[in-house]
Amino acid sequence: MSHARILVVDDEQSIRELLEIMLKREKYDVVTAENGKKALKKLEKESFDIVITDIQMPELSGIELLEKTKNMNEDIVVMMITAYGSTESAVHAMKLGAYDYITKPFKVDELKIIVRKALDSRNLKRENIQLKKALESKYSFQNIVGSAPVMVKLYDMIERVSQTKSNILITGESGTGKELIAKAIHYNGPLKDKPFVTINCGAIPENLMESEMFGHKKGSFTGAIVEKTGLFEIAHKGTIFLDEVGDLPLSIQVKLLRAIQERTFRKVGGTQDISVDVRVICATNKDLEKEVKEGRFREDLYYRLNVIHLNSSPLRERKEDIPTLTLHFLEKYNKEFGKDVKKISQEAMEALKNYHFPGNVRELENIIERTVALTDNLAILPEHLPPQVFNLPSGNSLTSLGALKIGDEPIDLEGIVGRIEKDLLVRALAKTGGVKKKAAKLLGISFRSMRYRLEKHNME
Length: 460
Hints:
By secondary structure, the chain is an alpha/beta fold. It has three domains: about 5-135, Response regulator (Rossmann fold, 3-Layer(aba) Sandwich), CATH 3.40.50.2300; about 145-315, P-loop containing nucleotide triphosphate hydrolases (Rossmann fold), CATH 3.40.50.300; about 320-455, Helicase, Ruva Protein, domain 3. Helix content is about 45%, strand content about 15%. It has helices at about 15-25, 35-45, 60-70, 85-95, 110-140, 150-160, 180-185, 205-215, 230-235, 250-260, 290-295, 300-305, 320-335, 345-355, 360-375, 415-430, 435-445, 445-455; strands spanning about 5-10, 30-35, 50-55, 75-85, 100-105, 170, 195-200, 215, 230, 240-245, 265, 275, 280-285, 310, 345, 380.
């Protein structure tokens, strides 16, 4: 708290000197001014954390100084000094933005505490502003990386729906970034300064879900030793994100529907309705229409949630984004681990591009995180990648060739052979750490033939 700059303004010299001595003992940097006009000149030229000003001063009153100070810089904390029994003006000053007031004759210890609390409050406010800016930056939709056509369309939808308060359903496989999309919508829209609260519907036991969502009264069930505020109430005026909403039990679906329809709910064991205003964003990797048909998900709730539908595509459907995502994660984990892995070799990149990524973007990120953490090389080579990367999808695997049937329609012989050849090249290079001569020997071909095949598959 030391080194904070404080401007003391009072037309009484004894008060100025007393405050200056006391505050300097607390290691604050103190400047004084004998009236409001001189204080304003100092405020125009210098920066201060706190202004402590008398209310009753000639020419420019403390109230006027407060208003002008706040117009210059809203972040400056202003504290008022008032005579005993004349607190009405001080209360008016607080309505105008003053942090607090002290009465003459004031106690030194009391003033120290108020100044300390004022600085704590200011620092907390600054931290909150910085955190919100960081969150907005982190969850900007530009950070959902990719340039495939499906991603361009998704960016456009995120930008448009973020300006609404409509309920949104995000579907997609695990690992496709559904929560990142939800946060991008929240932090780029009108609710960005309001709460964003997440409930993982698949991670909370059914007997605790209602209490977690809506809260409970003290004594409402065994173990309810204190009253609990539910996450819906915490999210008031903001966004509640229901992750894996398809896992919600039917008993909770009924209560969720009421909360969304009527904007009210009751705590477990409660008798009073609590009003709530929240925007609901849901995500699921399940086919909710199928769940509705099979009786596992309420149809009326489905239509309440699915006002706007967004789909997060699996990585195998936008493989052109793999290089961009890889470099994005490479940069991220270089910073996080203090590494300087400059690039990924062409052979390693080809292996990633040929992998089917059942875990989607999350799996790719985990692979790059692991690789950067474990390598001291300047480049990621095939041998640095985990073994599963070198297994083709089952539909294209070498073992499935026996099941390949030739029917009346022509097959893509060149494409099938090309994929097998490319896969074997990648595997051989991985086995030899990228050494082409050794890989050629493993494949039983000449180095010249190896070069030709690598060039043919754009792997050179």
